[in-house]
Amino acid sequence: MRKLLLVTTALVGFAHAEPAEAAPVGAWVAGTVFGLSAGTAAFAVVSGVVTMAISVGLNLIAQKLRGNPKQEAVRTELTRPTSLPAYRFVYGKTWAPGTPVAWTVKGRVLYICYLLNSRPSAGPFTPLFDKRVVEKSGNEFDFGGGGGAVATNDPFSGHVRYWIGNGSQIVCPAQIVSETDGYFTASDAWQGRTVLWARLNCGDDEGRQERWPATPPELNVDGNWSLVRDPRTGGTLAFSRNQALIVLDALRNNPVRAYSDQYLRLDTFRWAADVADEAVAVKGGGTIPRYCCDGVLVFGDGAELEDQLQPLLAAGASRLTRIGGRLGIIPATPRPSVKTITDYTDGQPLDLIRWRSSDDLYTEAVARYPAPDRAYESAETPVYVVPGAQEADGGVAKRLWLDLDFVTDYRQAERLAKIAAERSRMQRGISFELFPDSFDLVAGSMCDVDLGSPFGAWQGKYEVDSISPFAGVNDDESITIRLPTVLTESSDAIYAWNAATEEQDVLAGAFDGSVGRVQPPPSIVMTTGTAAAEQSGDTVIPGVIAAWNGSPSASVTGYEYEWIVYAGSSGTPAVRPGGKLSLDAADEFGVFSVTLQFPQIGTDYQIRVRSIGTYGESEWRTSAPITAAGPSGSLPVPQGITAVAQGANRINVTATQAADPNARTLLIYGNDVDSSLTAELLWTVPAGASVSVARSETGLGSGTTRYYFARARDQWSNLSGFTDSASATTS
Question: In 3D, which of 328, 332, 385, 334 has the Cα closest to residue 362?
């Protein structure tokens, strides 16, 4: 049954909420707006209620991270040289990209400083140049003369010396200062920042391209980074991957709007830190912490702080809440109900939601996360399918893509994907005004709802999305408390996880940071003849085509080629310039090709090709030789051939060319027997269509019989058949 709009509450024994820092606002409202006298009970209650103010929880799914840049893009951007490096906090255990902030070159040596973290860091550290681990001897924290760490593994041995400042350094390394002639000074210490200085020798020209494929070298440093304070241990400073402690650290120390502890609900962060530390079983045996946080957070202008911290919150599926002007956190964990609601006031209309918009409902979820075994490139978890959801929604699957830029373990990402998908299925909602006995509810509180008939469909467990208490004064002895409240359906099943049945295996990556030489194309195919000829009007253009598949090296950006021509009878090769092709020159099948037009028919040709890439050029790949030929065609046989003996040692031969405009040459053969198969070529005579030519064979003995044949040849060396034989016998 609904109650009256105004509910009078006796002041005896009534306890109002904190926080104390908002008390002046409450006192101003009680004294100025309501005209109550300080020290009276009504004054105290009104100030307390106003002090509590609105309590609102921020929903992760609704915000959907608001377009924060992905970790992959952040890492790429931070490796670019700049004199104004972005302000960044590196959290957890991960690769920190190094931003080149100062560098100079002397001879073959590069002296360079990289910014890793805009604050002190825990360590230890392992540098990677161009994603290749640097093994070392020495002490990278020794800044004295001859100090630092020296690389001991190929290809860096003898070429790399480096120093790391973990934030406690007060000077620049002595060797960097002494060898750069004042470019670096002792005061260039980057105090309070984590930086790496390096002395890099490019080495000989032959190995330089493999050792230093990029200029300046791309640096990442693997290590333990975040030094955070834990309110559970009195605020001691220590390395931690705990998601809740990292969110708290970002709120306290960010350069945008740092929160002091008096504006934070530290009790909620202690609670969330305990949740994040909980051991969760994994299918392969053992446990992992429930919520870890690893990544690089870059602070920027033009965005609310809470929005910039959303990737940290997403790593634990947690949400921020504001209670009386103080910021708290709601961890993703089952929570017991603190109250059963059985009635509501008629202070505002009852609003009941049974079905939410289909835009907010998902039947499955996939999480994207930076994978350490893939050099922190993006990877995807197997899809989590909400049991029965697709059928309930009419058989149409709808996938939620969840970006988890600070989660590096696929097992944690899989659990978070389930939480996000299951949360989206919580459709019931209630908006109403509660009685003062619900005053202790805050955003994030759990409660049971049992309003009786006819509201049975809304019976169940709910989470408080927001509650906004305010007070009205009846007299100096009583006030009216109102509690407009919004609830959203919840369930402990959202957070349940059975590793044996729900954890899905992910194929491990096999990243290899070693940089070999750029690979040439695998093979080259040469073609000539009809397939290589082009028709332009009535003109036929012969050619030689060279074709190849792309190089297996992913860094290739194009190809360079040169022709090899074998000149003269000695077959001496001569290299002729060719050209370059970009990757856009490939056809739809990924094949590259070039054509040499107007080759000399009958001459041998080769091509050699090499790959051009980010990491230099490959070796040349040379094709097999091919003899240039024109397009194939058919010619009619010459029109005829005659032979007449002239004395004892001479025979005159007359042949008439074929009546074909393509005929260019007349070939005349002779034999001692009547067979063209073994006939010897005697004369090659240029002759156009229907032209007659005469030749004489001399030096023959008396009584010698000879047989003669003729055939035609066109400009592409295509041959006709042989004529019938013509014979003569000397006298």
Answer: 385
d(CA 12, CA 308): 45
Q: Are residues 221 and 236 in the same domain?
A: no
Residues 305 and 266 in one domain: yes
SS3 257: coil
Angstrom distances, CA of residue 4 to CA of 409, 435, 476, 514 = 54, 11, 21, 76
What's the domain count of the chain? 5
Coil, strand or helix at 432:
strand
Contacts of 264 (CB under 8 A, 6+ apart): 248, 251, 252, 326, 327, 328
Query: 559 is in which domain, residue-wise?
Result: 524-627
Q: Is residue 617 within 8 Å of 561, Cβ to Cβ?
A: no
400 and 254 co-located in one domain: yes
Last residue of a domain, one of 426, 460, 480: 426
Rounded Cα gap, residues 293 and 273, in angstroms: 12
Do 707 and 721 share a domain, yes or no?
A: yes
- For residue 569, tell me if it sits in a domain: yes
Phi, psi of 151 (to 5 degrees): -70, 140
Residue type, 252: R
313-327, 444-458, 530-544, range with the lowest pLDDT: 530-544
Choose the final residue of a domain: 601, 627, 653: 627
Residue 200 lies in a domain: yes
Same domain, 383 and 444: no
* H-type alpha helices, 343-491: 389-392, 410-424
CA 721 to chain centre: 65
As a whole number of angstroms, the distance between CA 445 and CA 635 comes to 96
SS (H, E, C) 65-108: HHHCCCHHHHHHHHCCCCCCCCCEEEECEEEEECEEEEEEEECC
* CA 290/CA 277 separation, integer angstroms: 6
The CA-based angle 671-677-678, given to 5 degrees, is 45
Cα dihedral value 444, 448, 453, 457, nearest 10? 70
CATH number at residue 689: 2.60.40.10
Residues 280 and 409 grouped into a single domain: yes
- Across the chain, mean pLDDT equals 86
Residue 493 CA to its chain's centroid (Å): 34
For residues 580 and 387, give the distance between their C-alpha atoms in angstroms, rounded to a whole number.
56
Structural element, H or E, at residue 287: strand 287-289
- Confidence (pLDDT) at 8: 35
Question: Does one domain contain both 158 and 185?
Answer: yes
Handedness of CA 80, 85, 91, 92 (dihedral sign): positive
Is 482 within the bounds of a domain?
yes
Report residue 146's pLDDT band, with 50, 70 and 90 as the boundaries.
confident
